[in-house]
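Box 4.2: Ligand-aware structure prediction
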Amino acid sequence: MVPLPAAAAPKVVASIKPIASLVEGVMEGIAKPSIIVGGGQSLHTFSMKPSDAKALNNAEVVFWVGEGLEAFLEKPIHALAGRARVVPLIDATGLRLLKGREGGVWDEHADDHEEHQHEDHQEIDGHIWLDPANAIAMVSAISAALSEVDSANSINYAKNAKSLTARIETLDVELKQSLAPVVKRPFIVFHDGYQYFETHYGLNGAGSITVSPDRMPGAKRVGAIKDKIQSLQAACVFAEPQFEPKLVQTLIDGTTAKTGTLDPEASTLPAGPELYFNLMRGLTKNLRNCLQP
Ligand SMILES: [Zn+2]
């Protein structure tokens, strides 16, 4: 019997670079996904261009985290209405989900009026990829979804998923060892995007500068963070690439805290299957460099 030719690989779109990296790993040797937030922008302030809408309209499979994180995709995905298979990875089996943090200098309700009206504070935190165990659960969900749409390649998806999982497990061991010396050291992050990473590795994140990256903190919040840095003797205050406020300098003035930069959404990294590994290693290196005494 003549073997049937493999069907054309499905057109796949991924929302953001960390998700796309895992999808690309599962699709390696088959096809490449396109990415909506592929450049240096923050997913929190991103808005869709016509070319992004076109990619989405031609997609057969769309991977995203889900409602809440990628606000720019909510309407366009609803508009797709059954024309593509939409896979919210936040629903992947075996994910450990955490709620956005509240209280202290995470989401302080006694802040300015605008922040007070912010309604997202009790939602599930969407930065799920920063826990490597979650990344492994997502790889498995990605492989399952692609295999259903493109059964001709299901063996290849499963094979790629297996080797990607093994690589993430090895990465996890490496990062655990690397972070061990700094687990107790308190630090302040730019936005509350790190708790999956902190929880998994037992790090001591003590608060965030902003409640949401698209709005700067008011004077009252700045004061509260400064007090927190002083009282905890926080080792570091971390900025992010798109948000380099002079504020970080203001916050550490008169304290012993150092500054560093973290890029939890990989905005500065080239897209591709290695991005996930570079992202996790980059966070680890920058945390370690700044936090070590
Ligand atoms: Zn974020």
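In the box above, the bound molecule is zinc ion. The beta strands are 12-16, 34-37, 61-64, 85-88, 186-189, 204-208, 236-239, 258-261.
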